[in-house]
């Protein structure tokens, strides 16, 4: 690998990230949160200085596949590390801060926060803040005035904003903003965009990235306007929209979307979660002339079928309670939320029947469509594997038959079929290893955690979903630090769809 070329690109990425980190600092200033402003100012400065150092150590040059994979894989780790600094400066432990930051950027939505203020917004434990670096700075300089009972609006905005950046892909934004990326953009795009195939809408990857981000911005603005129109405060509307479009699930309220007690808000969020779980390249085609592009797409058809089928199972066997209208709303909301890996909660589904909980757990593995902001295995991979399984059944009866796996009227290349088989094998293997690791760690640490809770915890972090089951339903604070770091790496590996993460372990990768 060309280390200097990687360092130059990675340094530019960090400088971009440092500018983005100033935005939540400005939100903190708007709400007069001195400690939040200081924490983001320090974090942005350290990120900027690191970026400058990297670019000076690096050198401009043509990036290849190795450099592209390295920038994406290490870029996400770098974003998580520097994104964790504001949490850490405000008193949260380094492990919890890294967990929270990775959960945000990978659009997982799992959290270690456990406290709220009387208004229902997440807050940081006051004792932690009193012993934090930022608190010491505020006490040392009389010019700074701490705000009584701060709500940390700037920090909560950062959680949702980081999800929004990670949803469409912070590396994809990097391609859009920095023209000097050049031919490296295609390698970054290949490593960044989720799914077995990479839809390039224009000959230039940078133009494709611009199109995707433009569609993303447009849909974001529409949802914000709708939420505000139906009664949400602007701050809440922005934060929840960021998390919806990113299929991330971080809400400023502890009780998630259920906190608003509004069926119309839930229906609006449900609609945009569903749209965000579809391929954004198809949204572009719909917006610019091909009105039926979504409905002709076999992956979107199968995605919609799974949503309807799963909702029906929850209605029939979920034990949801209440009137039929409420049951339909809650069942469909939770199915879409989990399948798109958003993770918003409209009801305590941990209290639903085993059939309902198992259905939702299966959806944690299925995930959304390729090219969406969702995580997990992806509907297209599941669909292709089902078609491949059907082909094997026919070949068992007709050994001489020559058949292709077909999707959208055309054959799927055999190398793609094999890569999907490999991906699913690796996904299951990583899931199994992670469950054994945290089960062993919890046993050693004396933490009472059931097997279903542990399996759901890994499924939800590896699939970038968010909520788990049992003791991990709303937050992960009960896990030992080692287990949290296992989940940290599961979120990272899941967002990168395995290969860009694991390739760093190959000795040949680092050779020139």
Q: Short description, anyone?
A:
This protein is mainly α.
Structure description:
The protein is mainly α. The chain contains 23 helices and 4 strands. The strands form 2 sheets. Strands 1-2 form a two-stranded antiparallel sheet. α16 runs antiparallel to α18. The model has no long low-confidence stretch (mean pLDDT 87).
Properties at a glance:
512 residues, mainly alpha, two-stranded antiparallel sheet, two-stranded antiparallel ribbon, 23 helices, 4 strands, globular
Secondary structure elements and their pairing?
Elements (H helix, E strand, L loop, with lengths): L2 H18 L1 H9 L3 H24 L7 H25 L4 H12 L9 E2 L5 E2 L2 H5 L2 H8 L12 H16 L1 H8 L6 H9 L12 H25 L4 H12 L17 H14 L3 H8 L5 H4 L1 H20 L6 H16 L14 H13 L12 H19 L8 E2 L2 E2 L2 H32 L5 H12 L18 H15 L3 H4 L10
Antiparallel strand pairs: 1-2, 3-4
The biggest beta sheet is recorded as:
2 strands, antiparallel
- In order across it, which strands form the biggest sheet? 1-2
Q: Give the fraction of residues assigned to helices.
A: 55-70%
Structural class: mainly alpha
What's the shape? globular
Order of helices and strands: HHHHHEEHHHHHHHHHHHHHHEEHHHH
Number of strands: 4
Strand content: under 5%
Rg from alpha-carbon coordinates = 22 Å
Termini separation comes to 5 Å
Low-confidence stretches: none
Overall pLDDT level: 87
Determine the number of helices (DSSP H or I, runs of at least 4 residues): 23
